[in-house]
Amino acid sequence: MGATVVVIAAALVQAAGDTPAGKAIGLSVSVPDKYKGLIEDGGTVCPEVSPNLLAALLTQESGFKPKAKSPAGALGIAQFMPGTWEADAVDGDGDGDRDIWDPKDAIPSAAKHLCGIADAVKDVPGDKQNNMLAAYNAGAGAVQKYGGVPPYKETQNYVKSISALADKPVAGGGKMSTTDQAVTVVNAANDMVGTPYSWGGGNASGPSTGTCCSPRGRSGSSISGFDCSGLTLYAYAKAGISLPRTAAQQYAASEPVKKPRIGDLIFYGKSAESLHHVGIYVGGGYMIDAPRPGTKVRYSPIDSMPDKFGIARPVASSKKEI
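^ thats the sequence. predicted structure below, dont judge the formating
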């Protein structure tokens, strides 16, 4: 496993543990419909920031008011100070302009800024989420100076308010999903890294002998392992999500998305009916997959095959969605 993949694996372990990414992707915070997509996308930029945390921060900062102004000079829905905006803003909608008043720019910029802050205070003792939020409010320097949330009443109340809102559990079912499910899927696949490829191999219980024959005549009948869709079927089953057997069937049972989240499926082929490969996205441009006969389950760049068809998220039922 190369250095890049080690970093990705570490981020996944972190996501399952002590960071906000181990919390709900489904929003328990009330969010205006027009901002939900921006927040869901922004909450997947780094493991330390979840959609719910980003939504809670925007609630606290501006109450989702795009034209909000603070007495201290903070501007917009994410309440950026002009100097911070100049340093960290992104052109979220790709229109060639970074507009502090436009939520399409400000919300992605807030996510990026949070990720940068999380990295700046990652070595500070204490709760990582609290330190990140304190740094958003008071600056990373103050958190580093005091070795945690600084003794400012405003900052301490800020951290408590956002944390309480962000950590509120997602109620009901519907089409909510959790990062815990996604991490379960990825961890299940990760546990199988090194397992031999077997054409037709793999089921919900784990590796199995396959069948004959691949398009190039390779048989899996004497090999216990996984083919690509057998691996995805197994990993999703570990999270309580039933998938059909082939890549094309799995795509048909999923909702196409533009930007991948950890745990999403990456499909390859010329059309939805002729898909020949599928892998599980793990972040950072990598996936876990069972590539082809003669290989083993491994981490691969998502551009390792030239015919990437699309990204999709299973939506078989409200209880089984990721």
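The chain has a mean pLDDT of 85.
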